[in-house]
Each structure stands twice: as structure tokens, then as C-alpha cells.
Amino acid sequence: MNFTITRQNLHAGLAAVSASIPSKTTLPVLSNILFEARDDSVWMNGTDLDVAVRIKVPADVKEAGSLTAPGKKLQEITRELPDAPVEVATRGDQIELSCGRSRFKLNGLPADEFPTLPSISFDDAWTVKGKDLHSLIHHTSFAVSTEESRPILNGVLWELRDGAMRMVATNGHRLARMSIPAQSSDVPSADFIVPPAALQQVQRLFKDDDTLEVSRDGNHLGFRSGSAEIFTRLIEGTYPNYEQVIPKDNDKKAIVSKKLLESAVRRMAVVASDQTHRIRLTFEDGRVHLSVLTPDLGEGHDELELDYAGEALEIGFNANYLLEVLKYMPTEEVCIAFKAPERAATIEPVASGGDAMDLLCLVMPLRLLD
Amino acid sequence: MARRIHILPDAVANQIAAGEVVERPASVVKELVENALDARATRVEIAVERGGKRRIRVSDDGVGMGREDSLLCLDRHATSKISHAEDLKGIRTFGFRGEAVPSIAAVSRLTMETHDADDEVGTRIVMDGGRIAAVDDFPRQRGTTMEIRNLFFNAPARAKFLKSVSAETRAISEVVTSLALANPRVGFSLTSDDRVLLDLAPAADAGGRVAQIWGGKDAGSLVSVTGEAGGMEIEGLVQRPDAAQPGLRRAHLFVNGRPFRSANLIRAAERGYRTTIPHGARPWIFLYVRVPGGEVDVNVHPAKAEVRFRDDSRVEELVETAIRAALDHEASAATFDSSPRGPSHPMAVREPPPREAPEAQMALFTSSMEGSPSGDAGVAPLPVVEAPRPRLWQVLNTYILAETRDGILIVDQHSAHERVLFQRLMDAYEAGGQTGQRLLFPLTMRLTQAEYRQVEELGGLLGRAGFEVEGFGGDTVIVHAVPNPHPYFDAERAFREMIDELTHGSELVRSAKNQHERIAMTFACKGAIKAGQRLSPREMQELFDELFATELPHHDVHGRPTIVRLSAAELERKFGR
User: Fold this and answer.
1) What φ, ψ does residue B431 adopt, rounded to 5°?
2) pLDDT at B522 exceeding the cut of 90
3) Residues in chain B closer than 8 A to A169 (CB atoms)
4) What number is the average pLDDT over the span B92-98?
5) What distance in Å separates the CA atoms of residue A321 and residue A362, rounded to the nearest whole number?
6) Disulfide check for B36: which of A346, B41, B441, B575 has CB 3.0–4.6 Å away?
7) Has residue B520 got a pLDDT over 70?
8) Predicted TM-score (pTM) of this structure
């Protein structure tokens, strides 16, 4: 293998790929990047065995070939190189870099030791706008579970339908659901449960105005746009029936400034128990009283004015869940709706003119024993 | 008319009295050794033959007696120890009834040799079945020797009830051991048929005496107990929970230096151990209670084996709290190896340190280095380092290592978290209950019939633990809310395992004293973070802080240690420094 590449192209490619490389691994070849030079470009591949990233950069290829080389080291070297063409060549299992008067030889590993990436055909792909995908990921993926006992909840449910797509994430205590209209395509409906790590790479590598192709092959999902490809393993299983648990009859509604509520909850959270983070909200005509009482620590009280006309209602929440949900609300005002203190509360954005975003979050209450 | 009622001759009266005081050879030994101790002996030698049935010889280096006293002491109710009824309230000596020696003399062949410092020559008195057979001059150093031969030779009914030689020997050995523990500064020896059973030089304290009797290893497993309340004081040694074994218990109680038995106090001591030892384990307990004279009545039992406190419950409470406080102390944590730590000053009264996480090694640069080094204005001020906290490492995703001023603490994360969760739930029960997180997807579980009944029975308490359970008909339950003790908590699995253990029982469940504890223990055991769980530095710090905020940070609910200490001294020994 022998090619010449601009420092900028080499650096951009390495930076894009190296984020997919695991920082600690028992399999040494995973800390390497696979270089494949052919025609007029070089493909760089990195993977942690769950998610794989593939980047193509233009290069002047003198001799086609492939080799793996230490990713982080190459990235660090490239960052410090002068702005001049870089010549990359292999000698046996070593990779040689020359740029100006700088010379490096790094020990690599043969390309055939690198894991084979799934080969996914993008012939019958769904097409998705980068902006739409980003918005869905941003507003829902925070809600995935990190607890290992229910692996299915460790992924984000992505539903592709004719004319719409939707993402749902939950950890069983709170849930986020968002839908976006999508241009119809001929490909059939599909549901994927995608690990959030793959969605992070999607957010990182694709731009809002990219048009992505998405394709599935068996247990793998591929994303492609321009010179970047991402492959991920899907989480297998049936996602719980979330529609069934989203209340339709929450009739006690409060409209409140997101910013004011957020900062009041944050103040209460300081005094809340480190384990339960429990705070108490009492909704009354035109106002909400927030309070927290933690044995061994103390108590706090606060009050906000808001638009509430339902019956008085007292409900407990994990302050962290509430804050997370509020954080991802896109509007200045939000609508919180309840049925009863032991039932799920829903939180939705309140659009001030224009189209409302179809976003719904749900938080399960904490029981108030006293 | 013939008189039917008459006064018994002295000999018969003494034989009857002997029946109360002198039950068996061991009681003779007890009375004689106590007399020796009352005579301020510094060394007491006891020799017995055939379990004391043939011969008992107790000799001391105490004050001894003159001729007159020695004759008088053979009379009933002759005593040097009290003179008025009021004296009974503040008894500081072992004997006081003046019953022992005449009673023993009445049922044996007794030889007494004694000499006090004032007389020129000693006295020897020989008695036979309570009658004086001879009184001679006898050369002897200061002190008294009592030799009892053929005990119960004239009371065959009682002789018949004596047990085997080995059983009687064992009883004697126990009596001497108990008295030796009560008086660690007195030397003791006990020989049985020329075999030396005990040979104890005067010891500095009770810990030293325990080491003499049972060896340093067992002595090293003891931690000191001190406590004080309302004029009563308690000192002593109790076994570290991790060393407590089922089976033979060594429990010795002393009040004002007098051994006594009390099942209630032993139970109080065990309450102090609650949740730190497995069910059935019998920790060793050596407790020395000191109460003002009026607080205890020792004149309850002829052999003085039992005493009566004016307020039993206060003594029990003192014992329980003192033991609990001792187990709370870091010294009760398991040590790195089983080699003795040596009870260097086990009886020394120590202020228990304020409960807080052990401090870390001081950092090289601390905030005490105030201001910037003098000189050039260009030098930036030293960064202010926060108060040093233990630096924590996780090892094998199972243990947390912390550096302390005196070495290393190794904390078992599962055990530590068990203790934390137990405490948290018990506290929550007191305050009403533990918060339950309502579930978006309630858990549906099929149970066996027995499990279902158990859940029904415990419903309220489970609810207050955060588990909101509803019957769903048949043998299925729905769990609507669960506690959320940590981010890795698997509620379904924990609940299943809890119900299984609560239904089918286990050592843990049996060791609980009530339903609250049963649930808190199983919740702690099943809900605690597991070994193998990777923890972030913040999580480790939280666990560490919470552990040291519990009542008994050194032991988990199974009685296993949560903390193992590796002291600088142990490290130095390992490296041969």
C-alpha cells in the first residue's frame, strides 16, 4: 500500500473514525484503524464490535493495499504534522508516514485480523433527512435505560412508517416519544431497536442537510451518506407496548414556564435525598407549591405561578427525571398533565404559533407515604 | 407427753446447711478460693484428686489467721467479713455468711494450716466430720492451706449424686477459670491427679488472662467494651463478629469481681450483636460490671451463683449499648490475616472516636500551606487543595481500597452496600416507609402458593419498603412500584429472590428479630450492588460515606465483615521491615 494524502484529509478521516475505537479493549486489533487504499481514495474503518464507522477520503493511491495501524497514535501524530502532503506506505506489518522532514514507522497488524464489517446493501434503502433524524435522536435518546436487566430498554425504538417516523425511549420510569412526518417511500414499514451509541455516531458524523440512506440486513442496520458509513448491531426482542401506558385521559393540565419550573426544581433537588431525589409538587388554583423534606438534611419550599385550574393535586417525583425531561423540551412553555398522584404525568411542549413538535414525555411519580 | 419438736444438734444442722452450700467438689473449691481471694492472696494453688472426691487442697499466700481466729472460723456464722446487717448492702468480699467452712468441715475430713504475720508460729487444725480432732503448732509461711479429704464420707446420700471423676474435674476447672478471669492480677494453678490443668502467672488485665487461658489467637479476636450509665460501669471483652462461631460459648459475667450467671444479660449482649453475626453463632463474652453496693443483691442464692440487680433492665440496656458501641468501633473489623493483634490494652478505657470515614493520608500540598511562596509576584498561588478524603480504588470490580492514616482499608462493596440498605430501610420504617418509584410497565409475576400467601401476609410491610404489590388472582401478583436504591438495581430479580427467601427461610431470615428486620435484611441482601459491578469514583465515595454513617459499618447483615484492615504494622511485618 502506498498513497499520498493531504494532512487535512488524513486528519479529518482519522478524527471521524477514532471516536468509534474503544479506549480499552482486550482485542488489540480493535485499537487499530483499518486502511484500505484503492482507486483514488482511502477507506478508514474503526469498530468496537457493536458499532462500526467507515470513512472515505480522497488520496493519490500509487499502490492499492490494506493494513491496520494504531488509531490514536496516528491521530496524535497527524495533528502535529505541518500542512504538507503526507506519504503513507507499508513495509510488512509496519506503516510509514513521511511529511516534510518528519518520518514515522508504527507497528501495525495485518488487515485480515480486523473484524469483518457487515456488508449491507443500500439498494432498497429508506431515505431520511439528517435534520429529522438528529431531532428525533436529540429529543428521545436521553430516556434510554442504562440498567442491564432489561436489554430491550437499553435501545431506542425507531419506527419507520409510510409518511412518518417515530422514536421512543424509556427506562420504565420515564419515557420520551417523538414523531416527525417523513416523505413516503416504497420501502415497507420497519421497527428497529438501536443502541444509543450508534445514534451518537449518527449525530456526530452526519450533518443536518445530509440525506441519509438507511438499510437493514438481518441483525444489522447501516447508515450512509456521502463518504461516511455507520453500521450497528440491533437489539433483538420485542419493545414493550408503550402506547398502552401513555395516558390519554390526563385532564388536569398546568401550563408553566419551562425555565422557571426548571430552576425551582433544581433548587429543590439540592435538598432532596441522594437516593430517591424525591420532591413534592402541590398544584392548586393558579400556582404550584414545590417542597422537599429529607430526614437528616432539612427541607425546602418554593412556589410558582402557573396556569392551572384543575382540582388540587399533590404528587411526588424524582427531581432528576423531571429535570431531564424539561431539558429536552423545545419550547418556552410546557404543559404538564395529570390524572392522579399515582398515575403517569405527561409533559408536552406548548407551541406559540406555528407547528407544534409532536413530542411527548412521561414521568412516573414517586409514592408519597406521608 | 413426749416432745416431738427439738433443736437439732450442731452436727446435723451443719450437715443440712452443707447441703445448700456444698453441692459438689467444685462448690468446695469455689468457697475456698473465694476465701483465699478475700484474704488478699496474690497466688492461689489448687490441687484435686479424683475430681475432688478424694482430696481438695487450696493454698494461698494471703493474710492467714491467728490461733483464735482459726478456731472461731470453724463455727457457723463466724466471719471476719461483715458484722452488722447493714453491711450486707455493700458487700465487697466474696464470702460473708460464715457458713462455708463449717459446712464443708461437717461433711469431710478437713485439715487447716494457717499462719498470720503476727503469730510466731502457725496453727494446724484437724477436723473429722465437723468435730475438732487436733490443734497443733505448725510451721508455715504466711497464708492458709485447706485440705479436704473424703468429701461426703458421712453423707452417703449426697456422695451418691456426685458425677464421674471427669465431670467433677471439669466443673472444678470451670470454677477456677471463672475466678481466675475475675481476678486477673492473682496467680492461679490447678492440678488434677498431678496433671497441671492451669498455671497462670499474675496478668496485667483480663485480656492478658484470656490469652493465658485460651491462647493469643482467641484473645486477639476480642475487642474491648466499655460503658457507663447512672453510676454503673461496664468493661470487658467481646469477640469480633467475624470470629464468632456456633457451638461452645464462653460467657463470663462478673459483678463487682464476683462471677455470676444471668441468661438475661447474655441475651442482652446478643442483642448488641444483632445483625452482625449469623444465626446460631455464639460470641465469647467477658463482662465486668461494677455497680454501687446498693444496686446489687448477691445474697440471693446460697452459692451466690445468681445476683439480683435493683434494676435489671438498666443493666441489660447498658450491656447492649456498650457492646453495640464496641462493634461499631473500627477495631472490630476483620483483620487482614488471622494472626493475633494482641490485646495490647484491651481493657484500657478509650474514648470511642467520633464516627466518620477514616481520614486519608495527608496530601503533599495541603491547604495549610497558606498564601503563595514569598518572593516573585509572578509565581501563581498554590492551588487550594480540598480537605483530603480517602482515595478509593476499585479492585476486581468487587473491593474498594482506601488509604487511611494507619494503612489500608479493604471494603467489600456488596457487604458494605448490604449494611447501607439495611440501615436505610430500617430508618425508613421508623419514619413511615421507603419511597417507591411507580413503574410504567408493572411487573407481573407468578408465585407459588406459599409465596403468594407470604406476599399477602407481608403486603403492608413490603409496601412500606417501596414494593407496591397487588394480587391479580390465582397465584399472580402485579408490582406497581419498586424502591430504587441504586442505578443497577434489578427490581424484578430482587423481589423474586426476597420472596423466595422470606417464604422458604434461611439462616439470615431466622437471625432477624422481627418482620421489619426480616424484610430489611432480605432487601439488603438481594438489592445491594453485586460483586463484579463496576463503580464510578463518585459511587465509591458515596458508598464509603454512607457505610460509615450506619450504626454498624464493620459488618454486613450476615455477620460477615464489610471491612478488612491491613495496618501499616502488618505490611511492615510482611515485608520484614
Assistant:
1) -90, 0
2) yes
3) none
4) 59
5) 10
6) B41
7) yes
8) 0.64
